[in-house]
Hints:
Layout: E1 2-7, E2 16-21, E3 24-28, H1 39-44, E4 56-58, H2 64-67, H3 70-75, E5 82-85, H4 86-113, H5 124-132, E6 134-137, E7 143-146, E8 149-155, E9 163-171, E10 174-180, E11 203-206, H6 218-234, E12 239-242, H7 248-258, E13 269-272, H8 275-285, H9 293-302, E14 311-313, H10 317-322, E15 330-334, H11 344-351, E16 358-361, H12 370-375, E17 380-383, E18 386-389, E19 393-396, H13 406-414, E20 421-424, H14 429-443, E21 455-457, E22 463-464
Parallel strand pairs: 3-4, 4-5, 5-6, 10-11, 11-20, 12-15, 12-16, 13-14, 13-15, 16-19
Antiparallel strand pairs: 1-2, 1-21, 2-3, 7-8, 8-9, 9-10, 17-18, 21-22
Helix pairs in contact: 4-5, 4-8
The structure holds zinc ion.
Amino acid sequence: MELEFYGATHRVTGSCHILRAGGHTILLDCGLVQGGPEDDAVNREPFPFDPDSIDAVVLSHGHIDHSGRIPLLVKRGFNGPIYTHEATAELCRVLLKDSASLSEHDALRRRRHGYGDAEPLYTVEEALLAVDQMHGLRYGKMKEILPGISIRLHDAGHILGSAFVELEVTEGEVRRTLVFSGDIGQYGTPIMNDPSAIGHADYVIVESTYGDRLHRSLEETVSEIGEIIDAAHRDHGNVLIPSFAVGRSQELLYLLGQHYHEWDLPRWQVYLDSPMAIEAGKIYWGHPELWDDEAKLFRKELRRMPPLGNLHLTGMVDQSIAINSVRQGAIIVAGSGMCNGGRIIHHLKNNIWRPECHVLIIGFQALGTLGRRLVDGQHEVHINGTSFRVAAKIHTVGGLSAHGDRDDLLRWLGSCECRPAVFIVHGEDRVKEIFRETIKASMSLEPEVPMPGQILDLGSGILRSAES
Ligand SMILES: [Zn+2]
């Protein structure tokens, strides 16, 4: 029995690990590499295994950097079951469809301009075929998926349906428990439960996205948002909030509902201008059994989710265009989260040059994106080839990350009843080293940072390179 570290071992995206036991092969996640210009070519590379030889896939959660290559795996011959939480399977129908249509769109552009690969990574039809292979599970139930291999999903508190996976592997007399973190959420985040406790594990594979830093507290974040909305009202302007469609948009609407009177929101109109966020919202609000106690109580009191009387869901294009004429009193939540596409672009064109408007940046902004240029304080930006003076006030608000910070990750690791062998993945190299030192110092464990292709022998606990 062994685990091969493959994707997201030396980078943040493209999560994928290969478990071999009892003659079976299982993939833990199969994510897309995202964030760089050469990524499309990386995602098109052959898998280091025959997709046909994979017996099953276990998917931790719906984010594309964990799920986005599953349709490609299916396209290349994998026809086995994909085990995941039932809410993740629903979200994947939205997320993988979107990923496919982006890829189709890019391929069309390349075909027109005569460069690069003219074929999409996969089509919408292929993405939906992959979703049909998903078997929805619930948290907390052990399920034997192959002889000698059982899995149990636990709430990771990251996005709806997100799970860390407990795998119990048995070969003859040897039995080992492996825990794969997927992505771990923040403790005390809106709507989501806190990450569950680990229980028993011989091995823990832990992500490290924010293993080197602490987020601002939710209380500070909430009071900052309130102050910005107040200032925008005094200035007689609009508030623009670029937001990721799944998770962040729903949390934001929930927070607006929670502080509806405190922030004097009846004098505003709130627009969720993102077809994908509207679709994801239906899934979020359709699973109250997965919310934390506070959200459940809130729903009972208000009988409405999201709890906003002045919310407009503007799915249709003409509804979106109609927002252009609103010069003040609009809170506009639209994608994409990093302003590198989507409807937020149009709203920025209409508002960015107006000193009375405010832009609220609530998520991570990658280098090279328009969102990053705004955060970096550029006085002039180009949007779709036109230059705009940045006169609106740009605010960066931390604290709403779906990822746990250093202390959240340590708290989660500390919830293990025993002293497991820890392997750090899914982070920038520098961050993984910092996180390793932190774990060593604070938990007296000796974590390892595996390289891509290294193999962990689950029987002996020895980490070796593939050749040896
Ligand atoms: Zn994630």
